Amino acid sequence: MDINKLNFQNKTILIVGDVILDEYFLGNVERISPEAPVPILNVLETEERLGGAANVALNCRSLGCKVEIVSVTGNDPEGQFLIDKLIEKKVSCFIEKNNQFKTVKKTRLISNSQQILRIDEEKTPPQSTNRMLKTFNKRVKYADVIIFSDYGKGVLKELPHLIAQTKIYNKKCLVDPKGNNLLKYKGAYILTPNLKEINKLVGHYSNEIDFKFKVFKMMKENDIQNIVLTKGKEGITLFQENKKQEISFQASASEVYDVTGAGDTVISVLSVLESINYPLNNACEIANKAGGIIVQKFGTTSITFEDIF
């Protein structure tokens, strides 16, 4: 099946999850502070980028789909920046600005292309609200595919309810998980954990055979049809519960520069291909290629159609 960008232009991806502001201070370190044994960063440039679910939305939009995003931010400049940037990229925003919360911000200090410190501001991060749930219930029926982008900040606190709604409308949902609460992801069509996350979900295992047994057992018990396991420089592995099948795809990146946002890229590529019913094993091959491209770039960066097709 040939893929043309026109295939995606009438498809809608609905994204629900934690939106994050990624801030970068870029410069160089040439000396150590006389006040304490710490490097002094001479800041030459600052950048603000879309992070979390907002980066997923940007990726899907860059690939050519229509994109809607449902979330909650603080009623603050950081939240407004995220909304303005998403609108600028032609993403339809259904984002509630709430005075009770503060938008999550991650600040990275970069010296000579190397991250030397990350500062997370997560005081009272946004949570799901009744208004947000009502908005999702209205938008889900119009989507071709739903992505739940869970960064563990609180917006997907009611995820079981949200997944249940996708089933009512017979929609495929993909979940990028966080944490070890399996019940939270019950009923997902595709789960996209990384190695650290899958280990939390399956618990202790003694060897590779035991690991595979526990993965398929977990999938059957929790009605998870597919798992796409992202393994960094080792590529990705697809587990399909109905076929009891495991397929591995080797990483294509010759050099890993920065893994930030690689998981966002993989779930975005899988989702836009699912919107046109592209075979999942072939979609994984393309998503693996996309992940290999994005880890060679700096920071949270969106993939484009031209990058991979």
Summed over residues and divided by their number, the pLDDT gives a mean of 93
Largest sheet, if any? 9 strands, mixed
How would you write the strand order of the largest sheet? Answer: 5-4-1-8-9-10-11-12-13
How does the helix and strand content classify structurally?
alpha/beta
- Rg (C-alpha, Å): 19 Å
The coarse silhouette is globular
Element-by-element helix/strand order: EEEHEHEEEHEHEEHHEEEHHH
Q: Tally the helices.
A: 9
Question: In short, what is this structure?
Answer:
Helices cover 31% and strands 30% of the residues. By secondary structure, the protein is α/β, with parallel strands linked by helices. The two termini are 12 Å apart.
